Amino acid sequence: MYFLTGWPRRLLCPLRSAEEPFHIQPSSQRFYFALLSETQLSIWFSRPSVLIASYIESAKAVAQFGFYQKAEWKPDDSMIAVATAKGYILLFSVLGGRDDKYLYEPIYPKGSPRVKVTPGYKEEQCAPALSLEIKKPVDLEAPITSFQSLQEELLVCTADGYLHVLHWDGLGGNGRKAICLTAIPFSLDLQSARGGPSLDLAGVHICCVEYCETLDGFAVVLSDGRLGFITPLSSTITADLQGVWAADVSDGTCVAVNNKYRLMAFGCASGSVLVYMIDTATGSMQLSHKLELTPKHYPDIYNKTGPVKLICWSPDYSAAMVTWECGGLSLWSVFGAQLICTLGEDFAYRSDGTKKDPLRITSMSWGAEGYHLWVLPTKQSRRKTQEEQQEAESSAPPPSSPRAGILQFHFIKSALTVNPCTSNQEQVLLHGEDRLYLTCGDTAQAHSSSDTQQQYKRLNLHDDSPLHHHHHHHHLHHHLNSPLSQGLSTLLGHKHWHVVQIHSTYLESNWPIRFAAIDTAGQCMAVAGRRGFAHYSLYTRKWKLFGNITQEQNMTVTGGLAWWKDFVVVACYNFIDQQEQLRLYQRSSNLDNAFASVIKLHSDTLLLNVFRDMVILFRTDCSICLYSIERRTDGPNPSVSVELLQEVSMSRYIPHPALVVSVTLTSVRTETGITLKAPQQACMAESIMLNLAGQLIMLQRDRSGPQVREKDTPTNNKKLLPFCAPVVLAQCVENVWTTCRSDRKKRHLLEALWLSCGEAGMKVWMPLFPRDHRKPHSFLSRRIMLPFHINIYPLAVLFEDALVLGATNETVLYDGLQGSSEPLEALFPFCTVERTSQIYLHHILRQLLVRNLGEQALMLAQSCASLPYFPHVMELMVHVVLEEEATSREPIPDPLLPTVAKFITEFPLFLQTIVHCARKTEYALWNYLFAAVGNPKDLFEECLMAQDLDTAASYLIILQNMEVPAVSRQHATLLFNTALEQGKWDLCRHMIRFLKAIGSGETETPPPTPSTQEPSSTGGFEFFRNRSISLSQSADSVSTGKFSLQKTFSMPAGPSSKGRDGECAENMYIDIMLWRHARRLLEQVRLRDLGCFSAQLGFELIGWLCRERNRVARVDDYVSALKRLHKDFLWPFPVVPAANLSSPLKNGRCRPMLTTRLLKSQSADSLLNSDMDTALLPAGPADRTWMDGLSQSSKDMDAAAAAAAATASIASGQHVPQTHDAFLSLLTNKVEEYSVGSATDLTESSSVVDGDWTMVDENSSTLSLSQAELEHISMELANKGPHKSQVQLRYLLHVFTEAGCLEWCVIIGLILRDANVIKQTVGFLANPEVPAETLQSVRSGLLAVDAWTATDCLGYKAFLGLIQPHLQQLMASAAAPAQVQPEAFQPSAGQGAKLCPGEGPGGATSTRQEDGGGGGRCAAAAPLGLLTLPSLEPKPPAEDRTPDQAEERGEEEGAYDCTLS
After folding, report:
1. How far apart are CA 584 and CA 570, in angstroms?
2. Cβ atoms of residues 1353 and 1133 within 8 Å
3. How far apart are CA 207 and CA 298, in angstroms?
């Protein structure tokens, strides 16, 4: 509605005077303001705000007449009447300047285009020179208490109880008439006037009077505090007067009349404002509503304001400004919604909490169009600040006398106040005097944080804009804003406005802006000032003004503006033809009458609105006209044809045309389409909604006559149905919203009518639908009016999104500006306007449930269930009902909570809603809540059954508070086990903490509800990330660094092996559960889950496995364990190649080359962790750049891999050839695609690979690969699993080795097909400490695997053949375990059991000297999940074996190991 912005401006009077102005009175158009001080009358101009004339009374005249008291303007601004203390009325003529017409003129630089303007253009921007001339005074012989200007007369009330009616021009004896107050009969209503109880008015006079045009009477406050209304019974104003008075009120102080809504606002000594209306039937005064501060919002001041001093209605009558004797300003909408009050918050308190003195006001007045409020502060408050200022400026000479000051408060207002046709749109549009604010639906804008806004405000203190946000910051994405489907994110994304500065050229000559409108897409705006209009497009960021200035100055917009598609629809008056017109201008063509479609109208238009392709006009003769608009394509320029469809006369129902606030066409009707199945009929213009002084009147089409089916009539001569008699739908209506869209899914919301009703909140007139096309109940009405309260002032309704948009005043204090004196900026906070929005769905659902319309509520809720804040709506509904019922003092006969609970069970988020609501309400209300919704234990179990563990965790907190500790521990254990089972690690951590808290009695601090998002698990096991110990240390010496992960999740350090005996039983209890889970995982061969479990919860896997080595860490069925690992780690089973295995690799010359090559390609495994596209890249030299683009870690890996390869080949006595960078990237990509597939897929589908293979090495022609060799290589690559699995398997292998679980080492060695692992494990098995059953188990397991590979998986045959010697050694040692050499199980560096110190998650890096530097590299810096080095183990020196054996082993190992990195 109206919002305060920025700081007030202080205007200083240029004339030094000892007198203070105490009264301000605006002229009828509010362009001039008369200011009175004791002996001085001055006139100020509004824009620029300057003094233009001043009259100072002579001392002799002052002695005769007394001091000035009040002033009134004649309606045509030609005279001013001033009342003086001794009962005289002085009349002044206001004369225009003769030769020098202007007092102030704009000066333009030479060559400015504005110099060559048409004559008369300049007048609009200048302050005119006026002079005042006193006429003959009139003596009324009694002190004047109040007076009021009528059209040609002046009504003056005197303290002797008389009403005087004077003529403005002939003020001689013939122009005077006096009526005694006692001669006017007063009664409670007009019917009982004859002979009813009458008021005794002896000795009473009128102390305040105001004339109401639309009620045709005077609202009066009598000297004894009674309130009355005097109305003439005949046509002449002063003949035959009759009065009514308001019962039970005797403390009236002042009155202000609202002509548009026929309301009288009376201020009272109690500090409240009583707003009365006249009952049309009886003529009595009825209280409509009160404007008063509530103890809820203003606890320390609401009863200390003192009497009401002044009430001022805004020029458009949509808001009232009230001030009290003790000071302060408050602004209220016409039906009592409070908009601003300066008695609280930052207006009343400094930032250090001390109270400020409120601003006390002697007189105030609204400026033109309500953009300013002119305020005269009282002498005390003004003097005080000036004395302080003088003290502060004591160094300077004191001024001779202080200069008078006027404060000017700035406002921006909603476009709905004057141009209610914008209510069809879903944007909020506000206009200040020189700019527009619009809710910008642009998702691309930055959401700036509040501190940056604060800084911005500090930097721009000189800027008048209240919204620290300039309009050129944004670039709209037009494609995002399809006109009608603006998503929520766009309209609610942030609190900023789009600020559009109105074009200064237009503003200078046509200030003030009177109308503003925005199109449905929110992209085009139009504004109209005193003359002409202009429009702006957000696409082009340009204004369009009339090219011909005379065309602009020859029209004035009377009935408002609206957009129809890309045309501006204007109801205007043409001064040349002296005629009212309806014009449509196309947006894209130049703004010129040549491109306008013009329709002549018979009488003046007051209001205009657009519905689909129809324009509705309301005219001064109280008739409504409907026009149809159609786009014409025949002419050269786009134009429209407009036809009159229908005229409806409303003069029988409308007493005065000015009372109509808005007129709207809608598709709403009482029978909600139940009778009509066709949805397209619901879109027709079915009814007219008329807001008549706050009464919403509906005229429906009369369908009672014979109906004509639409398709039978040709389209051009459709006769529109007549309208039925009007029906009153609602009272106290300020705004109406309805939409012309339709949607089958959300009919409840789209076919409803939304009303804003001031202090009563909002109302929605909603259709009721029978379910599933059943016959409607005869008793069920077709529509229902539901009231609901909202906390914001509504300015727009988003129909489908069930949201109300509004705006609110925010304040920022700048106390830092104060010195010893307080400038205005420190007295008043800086005001800004923020966008707000509010959900209303829960209010409506609740209202429907109260009325036993649960079925309708369910249909409505289901249609909105997809909204992002639907869960919040449900919570709010439970919360509000719970708070009301559980805290009520009296018992509630029919509680709503059980109904609401039953209603919510219809939705899947029932459990979540209840627990969230419970946790947001106080503990005392829980019993009441769970009595209605069910036992929390049952709800907890339901959550577990539904696998909703996070919600179950929230219920646990409730159980912990409501039940004994044993119960909550039992439930916590249940939840903990389920969370472990499902791998919800975050929740597990919280549960460990929770169980410990229960045990140690910390139940007062329940754990926070676990967030619903799991931490994203990256590469390998999370546990590596914070691991700083060398993996080869024994479990007993594990440092606490291992548990640093827990601390990041704000948990107490986990159970460490040190000092466990001293820990409380609770830790033991938790440990037992963790051990039990680990045992279950190991029994089910879920090694991958076991690894995750250990890493996420900091579980000491090695220590536990050491203890369980001979119990659960045994393997019963090797074959099924092997299969399970293949499945869990996505590891492909090896496949036998078609050709003989050994033939391609007999050629010793090329083997090392291949080995190195393949190693080189392993570096590309790191790509599995990058988001590289798997598209095939062309092989050949172009690949060099691709290889160069690999991340640094893979570069390191390349170097290390090459070094390791070199070591391997040196060990087997081979020559290492030069490696080439342009290695076969193409194949690597293939491997990435097929890593989980089988090798046959790869070879059959990769003809590209076959074709391009020879391109790999163009410089080395000696290397040519046969088909068989190629197949072999692709086999080796395809038989490997994903890189991440490899990291994880190597880690597990290490853990099992550390813990001495050798059976698992054998299985992991088999799946990795790593001969060294098998060899090393066999070496360990020969240790005499290894129990015989372990040895036996490994032996029988390997035999079972051998049998299985022979029948089901031939791919393992080759590997088993390769490790044959080790197996034979194992069989031998199983037979004679005592004869093994002890060196075999030294975990030497060559066996890869140790990593270099500080090494992270890498594979087992070889640290022997002959590694040539590559192997000794420490890989801790590699990111998680990147295996740093291939596990190429150099063999023990060949002397240990026969030379040919050594050579053969070298060849085979070289060939196989390279694929395992």
Report:
1. 6
2. yes
3. 31
In a 3-state reduction of DSSP, which class is residue 1456? helix
Listing DSSP states for 41-69 in one string gives EEEEETTTTEEEEEEE--HHHHHHH--EE
- Rounded CA-CA distance 1215/1232 in Å is 31
Asked if 913 and 934 count as a contact pair (C-beta separation under 8 A), the reply is no
Q: Is the distance from CB of 1370 to CB of 1321 less than 8 angstroms?
A: no
Burial of 1223 (0-12, 13-18, 19+ CB in 10 A): buried
- The CA dihedral of 183, 187, 190, 193, to the nearest 10 degrees, is -70
Which is it for the CA torsion 183, 188, 191, 195, positive or negative?
A: negative
Mean pLDDT within 735-740: 89
* Burial (Cβ within 10 Å: 0-12, 13-18, ≥19) of residue 49: middle
Nearest-CA neighbor of 321 among 411, 436, 228?
411
The answer to whether the CB of 807 falls within 8 A of the CB of 428 is: yes
Do residues 538 and 513 lie in contact, with contact meaning Cβ atoms separated by under 8 Å? no
As a whole number of angstroms, the distance between CA 1164 and CA 1179 comes to 15
| Mean pLDDT of the region 709-735 | 73
CA distance 328 to 801: 38
* Position 1049 pLDDT exceeds 80: no
Q: Is the pLDDT of residue 1414 over 60?
A: no
Q: How far apart are CA 979 and CA 1014, in angstroms?
A: 12
pLDDT of residue 477: 38
Bridge partner residues of 407 (DSSP) = 10, 375
Cβ contact 50:127 at 8 Å: yes
Instruction: Round to whole Å and give the CA distance between 214 and 313.
Output: 15
pTM, full prediction? 0.75
Q: At what angle do helices 1443-1457 and 1151-1162 cross, to 10 degrees?
A: 30
Instruction: Quote the tokens at residue 430.
Output: 């506000």
Q: Does an H or E element contain 1307, and which?
A: helix 1302-1312
CA distances from 636 to 81, 583, 589, 590, 595 (A): 59, 19, 12, 14, 10
| SS (HEC) of 561-580 | EEEECCEEEEEEEECCCCEE
Sheet containing strand 319-324, edge to edge, reads 308-313, 319-324, 329-333, 338-341
Q: Which of 673-682, 763-772, 1042-1051, 1407-1416 has the lowest mean pLDDT?
A: 1042-1051
Cβ distance 660 to 654 under 8 Å? yes
pLDDT at 1370 over 90: no
CA 1137/CA 34 separation, integer angstroms:
106
pLDDT at 1114: 83
**With contact defined as beta carbons under 8 Å apart, do 1373 and 1328 qualify?**
no
pLDDT of residue 129: 87
Q: CB within 8 A of 748, min separation 6: which ones?
A: 766, 767, 769, 856, 859, 860, 863
Residue at token pair 């619901």: 682
Looking at residue 108, the DSSP 8-state letter turns out to be: P
Q: Are the beta carbons of 896 and 849 closer than 8 angstroms? A: yes
Q: In the chain, what is the straight-line distance between the N-terminal and C-terminal CA atoms, in Å? A: 72
Burial of 59 (0-12, 13-18, 19+ CB in 10 A): exposed
- Contact status, residue 568 vs residue 526, Cβ threshold 8 Å: yes
pLDDT score at 1064: 65
Q: How far apart are CA 462 and CA 459, in angstroms?
A: 8
Q: Provide the sign of the torsion angle of the four alpha carbons 72, 74, 75, 76, taken in this order.
A: negative
* Packed helices 1443-1457 and 1192-1211: angle between N→C axes, nearest 10 degrees: 160
Nearest alpha carbon to residue 123 among 141, 96, 86: 96
